[in-house]
């Protein structure tokens, strides 16, 4: 069962979704409480109250923080990223993991802000901006972006979640800043996937070198370097595609996918993967949502790829299970 609400007059158009699962085998429900008093609903446009016009989006979030709570302290908080579809796909991962374990699983709260996608849309469509490494235009005011996301994190914490996740590759570039002052674990996708790979005890494919991990991203400057740092902290050697590979295979593959040229997209993507695999990488991290759609799951090359968001989902489930056992 899921319960969703949206504040349509809310300046940042925040949408939130509270999901609670029912275990048919046990016949138990995870109780949840949603309180939306009229005091938190912003006035409609054209309000005569002068104070309303000076109210910032962040002040509205603070009001929401005090009005929305859940009674399950094993709940997972999800900060929606640039793509609403990706946020929902992550929520589906949590549900699938719960079904796999034959457990009702922890409830989760999803907070999504559509304005984020508008800020990134122009650069996402511009491969030249990504390739040149010019990221200063990614968000007009970096401090406002961090403040925006931090306020969502605080909202989720005040809602009673046991941990918070942000299933967005690009936004993880500011994870440490958004994390400042957090009261519950704020899981990092790079650390989660690096930890799982470390636990897998991979053997080097070349003698005398550590295990190598390839990273493919449409934005190598922000995202690729972020994963590189986390993987190197665990002792891995990281292989990133050079500029020519990204420019002539990765970016065109995504563009072909958007044109629905699936065959062309797959051929280009296979070339990009082979460029990394010939350098003796054990596996390739696909650090882009678009890249997840380029190969069928039965393709041999797909077996060499991993989606880091799977590791983030598994880690959040473990955190929730640990919180539940601690009660």
Automatic annotation (TrEMBL):
The organism's place on the tree of life at top rank: Eukaryota
GO terms assigned for molecular function: amino-acid racemase activity
Region (Disordered): 38-58
Database matches in Pfam families: Asp_Glu_race
Keyword Nucleotide-binding: no
Entry annotated with the keyword Isomerase: yes
Matches recorded under InterPro entries: Asp/Glu/hydantoin_racemase, Asp/Glu_race
Keywords: Isomerase
Ranges in coiled-coil conformation: none
Name of the featured protein: Uncharacterized protein LOC105157533
Organism: Sesamum indicum (Oriental sesame)
Taxonomy of the source species: Eukaryota, Viridiplantae, Streptophyta, Embryophyta, Tracheophyta
Primary gene name: LOC105157533
């Amino acid at each position: 069962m899921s319960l969703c609400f949206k504040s349509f007059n809310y300046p940042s158009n925040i949408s939130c979704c509270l999901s609670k699962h029912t275990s048919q085998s046990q016949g138990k429900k995870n109780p949840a409480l949603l309180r939306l008093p009229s005091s938190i609903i912003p006035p409609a446009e054209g309000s005569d109250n002068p104070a309303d016009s000076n109210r910032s989006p962040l002040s509205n979030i603070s009001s929401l923080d005090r009005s929305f709570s859940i009674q399950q302290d094993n709940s997972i908080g999800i900060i929606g990223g640039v793509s609403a579809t990706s946020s929902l796909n992550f929520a589906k991962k949590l549900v699938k993991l719960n079904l796999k374990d034959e457990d009702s699983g922890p409830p989760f709260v999803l907070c999504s802000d559509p304005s984020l996608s508008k800020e990134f849309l122009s650069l996402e469509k511009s491969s030249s901006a990504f390739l040149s490494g010019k990221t200063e235009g990614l968000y007009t005011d970096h401090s406002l972006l961090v403040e925006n996301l931090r306020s969502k994190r605080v909202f989720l914490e005040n809602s009673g979640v046991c941990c918070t996740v942000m299933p967005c590759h690009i936004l993880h570039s500011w994870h440490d800043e958004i994390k400042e002052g957090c009261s519950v674990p704020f899981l990092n996708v790079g650390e989660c996937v690096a930890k799982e790979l470390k636990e897998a005890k991979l053997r080097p494919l070349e003698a005398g070198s550590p295990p190598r991990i390839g990273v493919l991203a449409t934005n190598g400057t922000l995202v690729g370097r972020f994963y590189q740092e986390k993987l190197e902290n665990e002792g891995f050697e990281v292989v990133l595609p050079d500029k020519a590979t990204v420019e002539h295979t990765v970016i065109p593959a995504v563009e072909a996918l958007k044109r629905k040229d699936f065959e062309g997209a797959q051929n280009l993507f296979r070339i990009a993967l082979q460029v990394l695999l010939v350098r003796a990488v054990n596996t390739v991290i696909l650090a882009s949502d678009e890249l997840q759609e380029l190969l069928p799951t039965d393709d041999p090359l797909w077996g060499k790829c991993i989606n880091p968001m799977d590791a983030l989902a598994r880690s959040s489930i473990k955190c929730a299970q640990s919180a539940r056992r601690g009660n």
